[in-house]
Write the structure tokens for this entry.
Amino acid sequence: MKMLICYYSNSGNTKLACQYIARNIDTAEVSLFDIKKDEIPNLGDYGIVGFATFTDFLGPSLLVQTFLEKLPEQKNKPAFVFNTYGFVSGKTMKILDAWVTAKGFSVIAGHSLHTPESYPPMVAKGRGHETSPNRREMNGLNSFITGLNGLIGSRLDEGREIDREKIKFGFLGSVLPAYSRTKARDDMGEKSVDEALCDECGICEKGCPYKAIKLYPKPVFDMDRCYGCWFCFNHCPNKAIYTKKFRGVGHYPRPNDHIKAVFSA
Ligand SMILES: Cc1cc2nc3c(=O)[nH]c(=O)nc-3n(C[C@H](O)[C@H](O)[C@H](O)COP(=O)(O)O)c2cc1C
Ligand code: SF4
Ligand code: SF4
């Protein structure tokens, strides 16, 4: 049995968690696929597919939706859903489950994991949740992986249908609204570049998931394409990108030492 985990990760927390899941799945041979690559994987090669994302304004990112739209319709191929979040997951799991199910996958399990915060306005306010996941949260992740191993081992290889595990959406997942993508962009507001700091390295242009940046030779932002994901702000090595409210503070470009240590254990 082969498993593919398709993930979207801007600062590396979700990628790290997916690598951990992959290492601990022993009932399938696992590969990872980065959906930012703008390619479509051949799902025919895999018996089960995982979809993983970070929480982006209380829901899954537009990029994940666009990726799913490009996949061929499925006939009950088993799938699982997974997301990381820094503060509150909101509707991420519920919406991701609905999108994946609408594509014809049979979602058998899902899990949300608390991780350090990558949303600069929260980090700047000192709400970075730097010590997540804690032991209890890691126990939850490990139980999820054990359950997944059990489902795959006992049922899939025998070609039997798998009953869906009860997925916990949480109270807030039911009551909180899903925000529109334009709200995320509006909240971020206009972006500017400190031309003295920018060395025209191109990291922001290359990494923008929505192709909203062009270098001329300093970055110019296309606000119609921008979805307020903060990748450019977080990843500029010189902290040259800033907004009206946030300048030089709140960056989370890569997994912190705590989460790296937790996942290397
Ligand atoms: C634009 C943006 C929006 C976010 N929105 C939320 C949110 O609504 N709730 C939350 O708990 N975390 C939110 N986060 C935090 C991330 O979901 C969390 O830190 C995640 O682990 C980052 O994953 P990554 O490192 O794989 O990109 C947001 C982060 C960004 C950059
Ligand atoms: S990442 Fe920063 S330094 Fe590099 S081109 Fe963009 S703004 Fe300039
Ligand atoms: S311009 Fe920056 S904030 Fe907007 S989509 Fe691109 S990387 Fe994200």
Q: What stands out?
A: The mean pLDDT is 92. The radius of gyration is 19 Å.
